[in-house]
Specification:
Length: 299
């Protein structure tokens, strides 16, 4: 199994076509086709199927994707390690981050990064998932925190973040050990703006319902204050919750609804030592973080 074959496979999965993958890797489309044919022959399986709508991974392709991605990432790390100097990377590093990641995990990542790479010049841009994706594609930032999957970017999985129901004190469902999403359908719903809305609406649609949206809110603290005042209910990722909550009740959803967060970089970009340093600092901290801990409610 060759590294070039894995790189071609990952590029096709990320871009959705052989043509786009060839463009991203700056090689011919015939070279891409040859690489995939060789990889499938060696593995003895069909990894992807092509039709008019593009490329679809088979079950075998889905299972092979992340190991192949890790192989490509590790090879790039070897190359960077050979080129690296003892002083560590320096210069500018532009990071796109979400409000929730900035509040809970970014301070720890920044502290670790400053110890490892004191000569980095870090610029932070906070935005929505859509904005961060646009910044990455338009070279507005070097690395960003994004929800997965994300076509058109090179991504590295970071963590899973569970969504929980947030209800006012005294709500009839507030003392339950868990809630089905349909048990929130009768309440006015306060909808968080951004990528979470897509997950929430999808969860309602699995039971044939739509939330009764009373307001859309971008600010998490304002949203929580409105729930605490009895103006409605909402669903939020645990990572987005502040450590100190107003008087609200958090109830896990059943079945669980999770969002997958990752680190994104521009498609076809081999990154930089600065980006690699950020990835190396962020991933272990994200894995060690206690995403299941309950914030303290103030009554």
């Amino acid at each position: 199994m060759k590294l070039s074959q894995c790189a071609a496979f990952v590029a096709i999965a990320d871009t959705g076509s052989f043509t786009n993958a060839a463009r991203a890797l700056e090689i011919s489309q015939s070279a891409i086709s040859h690489a995939i044919a060789g990889l499938e022959a060696e593995l003895g399986v069909t990894l992807m199927e092509r039709d008019r709508s593009g490329v679809r991974l088979t079950d075998a392709g889905q299972r092979a994707l992340e190991p192949a991605r890790l192989m490509v990432v590790q090879a790039e790390r070897v190359r960077r390690a050979v080129r690296a100097t003892g002083a560590g990377p320096e210069g500018p590093l532009r990071i796109g981050t979400s409000q929730s990641f900035a509040a809970r995990l970014l301070p720890a990542v920044m502290s670790e990064l400053s110890l490892r790479c004191p000569r980095l010049e870090i610029e932070l841009r906070e935005g929505s998932d859509t904005q961060i994706t646009q910044w990455l594609r338009g070279n507005g930032v070097d690395v960003g925190i994004v929800t997965l999957p994300k076509r058109g970017l090179t991504t590295v999985p970071l963590l899973q973040d569970e969504l929980v129901a947030v209800v006012p004190p005294g709500h009839p469902e507030g003392e339950r050990p868990e809630l089905r999403i349909d048990q929130l359908a009768g309440d006015p719903f306060l909808m968080p703006v951004g990528a979470v809305e897509t997950l929430v609406r999808a969860a309602f649609r699995t039971v044939g319902l739509e939330p009764r949206v009373g307001h859309h809110l971008r600010d998490i603290n304002a949203l929580l204050a409105m729930v605490g005042a009895g103006l409605g209910v909402t669903v939020l990722p645990r990572l987005a919750l502040p450590l100190v909550l107003p008087d609200v009740r958090l109830v896990p959803l059943s079945p669980a609804v999770v969002r997958h967060l990752g680190l994104g970089t521009r498609l076809g970009s081999h990154g930089s030592p600065a980006v690699e340093a950020f990835v190396d600092a962020a991933r272990p901290l994200a894995l060690r973080s206690d995403q299941g801990r309950r914030p303290v409610a103030v009554h």
